[in-house]
Design the sequence.
């Protein structure tokens, strides 16, 4: 019966019209209570039970925190109950139980369990009076926080309550009998359908549950069967997703995108302790095995993330960075904005997104099985991560022999990687670092270009520097390596975690729109690997960076394009924005690590746009300095390397002029035959860039192979190679 009730709580959401809220039971009302020395009668939580032999006192009950109306002896548990009258059941549209407790609880209406804390055994299971919780939980009200809420809809009210006398009962449990504190403060508040007056005004801290008729965002509904979601391990749950073609989604619509089992846990290091909690879940079948599915049009997989925008009050920073990364050709997690209901309680706007994982639709590198321990097989694929060492998912890895920086195993998982594979990837990184420490580290043949997908690092750095993401290079930073037979180079990315980016951070000077992140090295144990700075100091790498930036600024990194993405996202979120901040009223309040605090959502978005404009303007000026070796005006003509190279179907060719000059830039085949003339006119001084689309002078496509691009400027001539792939 109880499991059915819990499912009803999560999946029906029958909504009646509602006029106002009234509180029927307050924590400081008089309650009958028992500090048990033996098991109470099984009917103690029912209306028929005779509690005349129990003590009577003012709630809450407990000791040690200074928030108790009745101070009890030190105990492992306390049981308490109180009666309340219902005049007209039809006038009650919903109810909210507000629970403030230390350390655990089970709550009942008329003997039916309506909620319990996640540190007690599963819903419906019997918990003896002398049982402690699995871990402690602190009460919140006495320190200015908010209690937890249990929402009860009209169907459940009509199922378990009656007109006349009803009883609300609670058992609270300590983590141990020797614990220094115990607390139980509980409230019962009803939604009233009209202007009828039955009870009292709710406490000032009371938050109305967010209810609505429809949303243009997909609705994700999750039921954990009354069990709280821990950090780990994942627990069983049920999930439904509503995503109608019309774009109008109602909470009582059929689940039409997903309707099945999941396992779920909290995720993140510090973020999992935010009031709005992020989650990781896996879609599973009825046997609990991985079940690859499409979710909201994203490619099939079983590993997913429900990211919870909290510090980022624009709600869109991550989605913006990921879209830009994908647009420039570097995979980042695909994502969809949704609204989340968890155990019948509205949780606000979330971002359903792909977890970073080896997969042909995600990080597309070779699969590495446990039996692949030699030859080409052992050489890939691998995904490594820079992050806090041995926390969260980072439970295995190794440290650099040169600077002690931690390389954490992401794929294969620490539990799956075998000694031979560990030995290989550790040796590979050691050899890579040795190259970076050599005098010839920038040499095209024997230096880092031979073991690094340079273009991927260029793009990775540009995204991170554009966002001035404080965690970049040090935390939430991924690199990968495929099998030697496929690609023996290190590849940067995917990018991840931008909630502190784009001016949304009050440390590391990242709120400022000037300066480079790679020139900031914070104190502490989370320093970036030494070779990031060596890359940054290399003239050839800077040149590639400047060329790529110049290319992207004309399109993907233009303010017009970026603002179009922002405006589209804000429009898409629509009325869900108001619901989110009704649930989480943090606008106008500091949330770590905000640098600026604004009163309205519109101001948050305006600041984001303004910061981006200023950041790009500064990068424009600084990139110009990069193009001139950051110090002096060009004194010579210069032809740069094409980017990308190899290419298909377009590459960019840049060059520099010191004076007004007659310029001819042409493409030749390997035999010296002229294929196409790209430039043939007089030009002013400065940095220039043109594109070749792999066509000849007649506009016809040319075959794959090696070509020369050559520039003639008066008595100056230079040529370089470019490779066309088909």
Sequence:
């Amino acid at each position: 019966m109880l499991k059915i009730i819990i499912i009803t709580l999560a999946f029906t959401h029958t909504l009646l019209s509602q006029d106002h809220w009234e509180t029927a039971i307050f924590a400081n009302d008089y309650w009958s209570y028992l500090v048990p020395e033996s098991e109470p009668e099984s009917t103690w939580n029912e209306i028929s039970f005779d509690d005349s032999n129990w003590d009577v006192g003012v709630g809450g009950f407990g000791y040690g925190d200074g928030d108790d109306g009745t101070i009890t002896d030190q105990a492992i548990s306390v049981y308490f109950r109180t009666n309340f009258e219902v005049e007209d059941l039809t006038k009650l549209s919903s109810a909210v139980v507000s629970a403030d407790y230390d350390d655990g609880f089970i709550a009942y209406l008329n003997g039916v369990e309506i909620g319990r804390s996640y540190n007690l055994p599963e819903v419906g299971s019997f918990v003896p009076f002398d049982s402690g919780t699995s871990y402690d939980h602190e009460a919140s009200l006495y320190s200015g926080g908010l209690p937890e809420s249990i929402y009860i809809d009209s169907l459940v009210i009509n199922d378990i309550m009656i007109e006349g006398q009803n009883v609300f009962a609670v058992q609270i449990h300590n983590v141990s009998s020797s614990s220094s504190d115990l607390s139980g403060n509980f409230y019962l508040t009803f939604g009233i359908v009209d202007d009828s007056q039955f009870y009292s005004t709710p406490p000032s801290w009371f938050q109305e549950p967010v209810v609505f008729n429809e949303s243009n965002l997909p609705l994700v509904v999750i039921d954990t069967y009354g069990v709280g979601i821990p950090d780990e391990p994942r627990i069983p749950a049920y999930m439904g997703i509503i995503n109608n073609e019309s774009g109008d989604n109602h909470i009582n619509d059929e689940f039409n995108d997903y309707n099945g089992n999941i396992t779920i846990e909290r995720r993140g290091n510090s973020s999992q302790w935010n009031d709005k909690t992020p989650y990781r879940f896996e879609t599973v079948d009825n046997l609990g095995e991985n079940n690859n599915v499409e979710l909201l049009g994203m490619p099939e997989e079983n590993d997913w993330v429900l990211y919870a925008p909290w510090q980022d009050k624009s709600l869109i920073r991550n989605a913006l960075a990921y879209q830009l990364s994908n647009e420039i050709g570097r995979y980042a997690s695909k994502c969809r904005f949704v609204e989340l209901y968890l155990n019948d309680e509205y949780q606000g706007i979330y971002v359903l997104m792909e977890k970073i994982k080896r997969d042909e639709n995600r990080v597309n590198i070779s699969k590495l099985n446990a039996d692949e321990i030699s030859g080409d097989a052992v050489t890939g694929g691998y995904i490594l991560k820079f992050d806090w060492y041995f926390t969260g998912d980072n439970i295995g890895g190794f440290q650099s022999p040169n600077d002690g920086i931690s390389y954490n195993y992401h794929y294969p998982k620490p539990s799956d990687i075998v000694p031979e594979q560990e030995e290989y990837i550790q040796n590979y990184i050691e050899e890579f670092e040795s190259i970076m420490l050599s005098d010839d580290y920038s040499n095209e043949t024997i230096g880092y270009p031979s073991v690094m997908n340079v273009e991927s690092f260029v793009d990775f750095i540009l995204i991170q520097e554009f966002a001035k993401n404080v965690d970049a290079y040090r935390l939430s930073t991924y690199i990968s390596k495929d099998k030697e037979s496929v690609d023996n180079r290190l590849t940067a990315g995917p990018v991840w975690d931008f909630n502190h980016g784009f001016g949304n951070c009050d440390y590391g000077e990242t709120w400022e729109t000037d300066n480079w992140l790679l020139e900031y090295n914070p104190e502490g144990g989370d320093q970036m690997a030494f070779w990031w700075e060596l890359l940054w100091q290399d003239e050839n790498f800077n040149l590639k960076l400047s060329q790529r930036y110049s290319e992207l600024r004309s399109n993907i990194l233009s303010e017009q394009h970026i603002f179009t993405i922002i405006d589209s996202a804000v429009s898409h979120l629509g009325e869900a924005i108001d619901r989110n901040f009704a649930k989480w009223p943090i606008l106008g309040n500091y949330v770590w690590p905000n640098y600026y605090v604004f009163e309205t959502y519109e101001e948050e978005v305006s600041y984001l746009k303004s910061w981006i404009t200023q950041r790009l303007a500064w990068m424009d000026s600084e990139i110009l300095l990069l193009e001139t070796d950051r110090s002096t005006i060009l004194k010579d003509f210069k032809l740069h390397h094409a980017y990308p190279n190899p290419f298909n179907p377009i590459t960019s060719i840049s060059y520099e002029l010191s004076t007004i000059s007659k310029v001819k830039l042409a493409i030749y085949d390997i035999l010296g035959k002229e294929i196409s003339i790209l430039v043939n006119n007089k030009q002013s001084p400065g940095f220039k860039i043109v594109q070749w689309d792999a066509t000849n002078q007649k506009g016809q496509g040319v075959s794959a192979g090696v070509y020369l691009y050559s520039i003639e400027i008066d008595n100056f001539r230079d040529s370089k190679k470019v490779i066309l792939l088909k």
Remarks:
- The two ends are 64 Å apart (CA to CA).
- The first strand starts at residue 20 and ends at 25.
- Residues 1-15, 626-635 have pLDDT under 50 and may be disordered.
